[in-house]
Write a structure and sequence with these properties.
Thrombin, subunit H, six-stranded antiparallel beta barrel
Length: about 100
């Protein structure tokens, strides 16, 4: 990707996870994550714009984040832009990312 269009900063925080979409799913690793999305390292990738869910353990809780695939970098992985986060998801994400940006999550 030649230009970074991210709205939120991401941090490099490897997390073991799983992903599932219309085309399948598998175990994966979240390479970086922020309030707006994450990059998922996986051998199998969903299609761009495919609705996808990622489930990972943050702290002592499992969290499922839903969103759409916005970028695929075969064979390494893909990026997901999250749907608006629920209050519960925000609470869990704060353990990893700190407070959300003032403009909201």
């Amino acid at each position: 990707m030649s230009q970074d269009h991210r709205k939120y900063i991401r941090i490099a925080k490897p997390l073991e996870a799983t992903w599932r979409g219309a085309g399948g799913g598998s175990v994966c690793r979240i390479a970086d994550i922020g309030w707006g999305g994450c990059f998922v390292q996986a051998l199998a990738q969903p299609a761009i714009r495919e609705r996808t869910e990622i489930t990972a353990r943050i702290g002592d809780r499992d969290i499922t984040l839903n969103g759409s695939v916005v970028y695929v970098e075969a064979p390494f992985g893909f990026s997901i832009e999250f749907d608006p986060l629920t209050e519960e998801q925000i609470t869990v994400m704060k353990e990893l990312l700190g407070e959300p940006p003032a403009s909201g999550a």
